[in-house]
């Protein structure tokens, strides 16, 4: 392990990779110009290309995603679960609460705000083919069941396998934090050559565009909240102010670093989300929420395998394209960015601890969140008190605020949601800026601050431009199309990780937690004789 730690230190402050950075920035700007100049054409083209990919290759997303879930669970419960991500004396740098809070904020935080009320009521009105009749009690159960399916284990498996591949590559093997470096077991020296740098350039572009789209969506959520609690209406000035404030905030947080920036934001937002959830639970339909949760979880568990492998082969497939395949493609596009950051904060934990922290804990929190917010929305809908589905069909981001309008202190709670959306975005986007700096600095763990600031400003500029000219939808579809092939890279990362992990455990080149001191010493001695650092 000494050799790998030494190599890791060499990568900590590596210089900027000018060809990769300049190419990625140029492609991003070109993508932006096309999206702005030919907004409608790009949106239509993106929709058609994505529809083709989803229709012809949706099965690849479905089967791969199921495979990621089973692969990472196998690693956790097998002997490989005792492998430590670090040296024998390494301890976790963050408390379990802060660790989980950061990954929750990075992974799906803004999505839970956007879809928490919108998805359950929309699926109640438009259930999957072969499901119950729309707008019925049975449809409400299935809607909650699929909301859990789309946001619990499966999306976290994307982030989990990517993060584990990055963690093993950087912490255990001492290679740089690059997607190409995780593929070295399969590509060999080609991972350091033109092919590897091409992959890293592509990853930077998809991460950059994905962050810009998320900033745009977060801005729309905040503007909708401001309109709900005041007379402020969406305008160019409002968009400029919101994007400017969010961009400045996440750049400041990114420059401050993980401990002073992201960690504190994630801790605060997690506590605020818990408080808001408890408020809705206590003052809302308490019994209905838990009754619905019980039935939805029963359906989710019983139908876990059928849902995991459902492709819509005997239907028109449109529902699968719009929902399950869309979510899987979108989640996979975020895997390199989220995975890279997960690796940064997971040193000192075993693979088993990592999997339970990345897969199980956030999934449980997600289930609770959707049960409370989605349950409250469905109760209001079924009772006829409020037509949440109608509001959601007009404005997805307004659905949450329409639910809160039925509760006391709606202005206060709406402000809390605006803060949640803003901080969830900031904590995710500043991590994105750091990761972009890492990817464009040869995998440096501590990229130069000016580079982080530059990427942050570019993210903000892209998002603002698209919001003003109305090209956000175009970029969203374009990002999905560009990022979709990454599913194959993620499969390759799993294969490479499995190959390297198996060889290292067999040769005694890793620290295994749970063995006697004598065996650990023997393995350490064996490792010192057998281990050869990567070139």
TrEMBL record:
Record-annotated membrane-spanning stretches: 20-38, 58-77, 97-118, 148-168, 199-224, 236-258, 270-293, 325-343, 355-378, 415-438, 450-469, 475-497
Assigned GO CC terms: plasma membrane
GO molecular function annotation: transmembrane transporter activity
Lineage: Bacteria, Bacillati, Actinomycetota, Actinomycetes, Mycobacteriales
Keyword field: Cell membrane, Membrane, Transmembrane, Transmembrane helix, Transport
Subcellular location, record wording: Cell membrane
Protein name: BCCT family transporter
Primary localization class, coarse: membrane
Recorded family membership: Belongs to the BCCT transporter (TC 2.A.15) family.
InterPro entries, sorted: BCCT_transptr
Pfam families per record: BCCT
Source organism, top-level taxon: Bacteria
Membrane topology field: Multi-pass membrane protein
């Amino acid at each position: 392990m000494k050799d790998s730690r030494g190599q890791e230190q060499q990568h900590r402050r590596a210089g900027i990779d000018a060809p990769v950075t300049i190419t990625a920035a140029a492609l991003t700007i070109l993508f932006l110009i096309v999206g702005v100049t030919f907004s409608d054409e790009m949106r239509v083209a993106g929709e058609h290309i994505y529809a083709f990919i989803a229709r012809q290759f949706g099965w690849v997303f479905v089967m791969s995603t199921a495979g990621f879930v089973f692969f990472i669970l196998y690693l956790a419960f097998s002997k490989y679960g005792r492998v430590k991500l670090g040296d024998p004396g390494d301890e976790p740098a963050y408390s379990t609460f802060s660790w989980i809070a950061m990954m929750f904020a990075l992974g799906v935080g803004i999505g839970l705000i956007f879809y928490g009320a919108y998805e359950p009521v929309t699926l109640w009105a438009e259930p999957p083919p072969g499901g119950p009749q729309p707008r019925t009690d049975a449809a409400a159960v299935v809607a909650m069941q699929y909301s859990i399916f789309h946001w619990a284990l499966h999306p976290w498996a994307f982030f989990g396998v990517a993060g584990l591949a990055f963690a093993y590559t950087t912490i255990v093997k001492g290679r740089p934090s690059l997607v190409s470096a995780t593929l070295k077991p399969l590509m060999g020296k080609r991972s350091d050559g033109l092919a590897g740098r091409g992959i890293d350039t592509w990853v930077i572009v998809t991460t950059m565009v994905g962050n810009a789209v998320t900033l745009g969506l977060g801005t729309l959520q905040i503007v909708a909240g401001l309109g709900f609690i005041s007379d402020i209406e969406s305008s160019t000035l409002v968009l400029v102010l919101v994007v400017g404030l969010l961009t400045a905030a996440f750049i400041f947080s990114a420059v401050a670093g993980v401990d002073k920036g992201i960690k504190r934001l994630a801790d605060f937002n997690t506590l605020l989300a818990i408080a808001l959830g408890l408020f809705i639970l206590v003052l809302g339909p308490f019994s209905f929420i838990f009754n619905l949760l019980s039935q939805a979880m029963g359906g989710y568990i019983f139908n876990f395998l059928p849902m995991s492998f459902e492709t819509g082969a005997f239907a028109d497939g449109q529902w699968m394209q719009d929902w399950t395949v869309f979510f899987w493609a979108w989640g996979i596009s975020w895997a390199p960015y989220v995975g890279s950051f997960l690796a940064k904060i997971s040193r000192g934990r075993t693979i088993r601890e990592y999997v339970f922290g990345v897969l199980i804990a956030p999934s449980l929190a997600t289930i609770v969140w959707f049960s409370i917010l989605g349950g409250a929305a469905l109760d209001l809908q079924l009772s006829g008190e409020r037509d949440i589905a109608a509001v959601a069909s007009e404005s997805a981001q307004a659905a949450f605020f329409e639910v809160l309008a039925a509760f006391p202190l709606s202005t206060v709670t709406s402000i809390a949601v605006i803060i949640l959306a803003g901080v969830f975005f900031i904590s995710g986007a500043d991590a994105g800026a750091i990761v972009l700096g890492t990817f464009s600095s040869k995998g440096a763990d501590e990229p130069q601050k000016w580079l982080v600031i530059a990427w942050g400003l570019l993210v903000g500029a892209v998002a603002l431009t698209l919001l003003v000219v109305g090209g956000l939808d175009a970029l969203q579809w374009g990002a999905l199309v560009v990022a979709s092939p990454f599913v194959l890279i993620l499969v390759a990362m799993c294969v490479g990780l499995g190959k390297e992990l198996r060889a290292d455990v067999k040769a005694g080149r890793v620290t295994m937690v749970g063995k006697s001191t004598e065996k650990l010493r023997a393995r350490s001695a064996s490792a010192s004789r057998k281990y050869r650092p990567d070139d």
